[in-house]
Amino acid sequence: MKEKICLFLKVFCMTTLFVVSVSCGLFTKNAFADDKFITGGPGTCTVDVLGVSDDSAFVKVIAVYLPQQYTCVPGTYLHVTETEAFCDDCPLNSYCPGGTFSVEDTYLGQNLCPDNYITVSTNSTSPSDCLPDSYCEWECTTPDCTPCGPSDIDGFIAVTPLMEAGDTFKFDLTAGGEFIIDWGDGTVENVEKRTGNISLQHAYQKPGQYRIKISGNASGYAANMPAISFQCKDDTGEYIVEHPLAGIEGSLGRVFPTINGVQPLFTKTFYGCDKVQNQTLPEYLFAGIKGKPAAHMFDSTFAGMTSLTEIPEKFTFGVSGAPADYVFANTFKETNISSIPEDLFLRIFGAPADGMFRGTFAGTQIESIPAEIFKGISGSKNTPIGEYAFANTFENTPITEIPEGLFENVKGAPSKGLFYATFKNTYITKLPETGMFPGISGAPAESMFDYTFANTPISNIPEDLFSKIEGSPAPRMFASTFEGCDKIEQSIPGALFGGIGGGPASGMFNRTFFNASKLLEWIPTNLFEKLQPFTNTGVVSDEIEPMGDIFLGSGITTDCKPYGKVQYFTGFEEYFDYKVSCTDCPANSVIFNGQCMCNDGYWVFDGTEILENTFVIEK
After folding, report:
1. Which of 7, 53, 384, 549 is the most exposed place for a label (fewest CB within 10 A)?
2. If you compute the radius of gyration of the chain from its CA atoms, what whole number of angstroms results?
3. 3-class SS at 563?
4. Residues whose CB is less than 8 angstroms from the CB of residue 123 and which lie 6 or more positions away in sequence, other chains included
5. 383 neighbors 351 (Cβ within 8 angstroms)
6. Measured between alpha carbons, how far is 607 from 590 in angstroms, rounded to an integer?
7. Burial level of 417, CB count in 10 A (0-12/13-18/19+)?
């Protein structure tokens, strides 16, 4: 933690006049008797007496630790890490009135809301911003209770396809508890079981379509297993049931609620059920669930339910609080939903967890992204964000625009696969001009922007897009980032990778601009200026060469002459597929045969030592 050192100068002998020079690092000041000042310390300080009028006088310099004071405006608090302190946005479910604080204070300006109270936005300033977290109860016993839904919703209903006589329908149940299964043909089965998987099945004697009602109450859940599953396909896309589910009604949360903080999992509960006829989800499907989400809780829950076209505006997952690993991974993947309710994740707040939004909306028909869909997702500066947190989130969708500020609350250091293929194969035409990733700062991470914008018709590359990424290269950090972006009609910003420096990493810029066929002009001379030189070590595979095919098929020029410039040698030309970097000739020189020549006829060589009288032009 960098703090301030206050130097007090004291003199003994009242009549003495003196001058001293105090140096602390780069700070130097001439000081007089009883002077005091603050340096940029800490560090070793030296004191030199420049002049004294009495040999009996002497100077004493006292170094005093003086914690720096920080004044944070209302809506912010003092955030202290091991290396720095700064005023940060007040997170959700807290209020911060502002004030002046020191790193040594026990109170840094952040006040938590009481239990069961939340805030609906960051930067809250007052206790009045804390509102009741109004999760519901199915059986209200107090006047202020909110009912979960209509009283006639007392279970979950699964609709069978059209069955022939003798056909069997089955599903898996891992939750423990007492359940009533009404098979819809007059057969009612009472099931009392402990946690652990069993397959329930029933053979129908007559043809027809049946509504199976599941009611009762779960009493416990098996670890890492869905509470109930109607999964229709395996991961290869093959049906694993003979008679796939045809419809869903009612509430799973009514039968499988949160039990003493333990959450049911609905991982792949309806995975691959493309025969389901529902065009919209039941509004109260998860009503009754409350509290913090669990890892993989809604992972792939509706993935592949192709008939699904709408998520109701009031639909809720029920959970609230800190994100969990892969909690919404692939939840709606390859459904046909066309819009996202703005408040879908309203009650999820905190630092992104591993894979929490990986593939959430991939392969859907959404055309726009609500600007505040990730409003509660925050984090802390220099703290790593969860790996693959936003990987593939909107991949293969027809979205046309990235809203300003989509990730403005997301803070932290890059992590592996953070934005892997996030917008790949979408229809976005333009990136926000400034601050798309304002809170992402720190050292590069493996595959952090791998395929992020690949195969999109974006027309621009903002200069500050990666401006806060600083440090040594990581494997595939910018691999294929702009691959196939054949509508970019601008030159590459010279400072795009300005913070990246050091030795090479495997595939770090592999195919970064591959087939970006309308890129203009030349490779900026400063694009890789902080990278250390390296050579091709004989590796054949482009997948692991540091810059394999980086500019192949791009619109970058192969000749500087049409631009009135000469080639600038970066040291990485063997990877550039004949694309070149260009620069101007020095003053008092001219271009001759593609090289700079002084007016006196001698060649100008940049950084190359040559022998005397070499390359003299005969006049």
Report:
1. 53
2. 33
3. helix
4. 75, 76, 89, 90, 96
5. yes
6. 18
7. buried
Q: Over the range 118-152, which residues count as b (16 or more CB within 10 Å of their CB) and which as e?
A: bbbebbbeeeebbeebebbebeeeeeeeeebbeee
For every residue of 87-129, DSSP letters joined together read EEEPPTTEE---EEEETT-S--S-EEPPTTEE-SSSS--SGGG
- Exposure of 160 in the CB half-sphere (CA atoms within 13 A): 26
DSSP 378-409: -EEEEEEPPTTTTTTTTTT-----PPTTTTTT
Q: State the DSSP code for 551.
A: S
d(CA 469, CA 419): 13
Residues paired with residue 102 on neighbouring β-strands, in sequence order: 69
Residue 440 in contact with residue 469, Cβ under 8 Å? yes
pLDDT digits (tens, 9 = 90+) for 62-96: 444 456 788 999 999 998 876 778 898 898 888 99
Q: Report the C-alpha gap between 255 and 97 in whole angstroms.
A: 43
CB neighbours of residue 569 within 10 Å: 14
Mean pLDDT, residues 102-117: 84
Residue linked to tokens 């008939």: 307
From the number of C-beta atoms within 10 Å of its C-beta (0-12, 13-18, 19+), residue 540 rates as exposed
pTM: 0.80
The amino acid occupying position 215 is: S
Mean pLDDT calculated for residue range 401-417: 94
Name the residue among 223, 218, 170 with its Cα closest to residue 196. 223
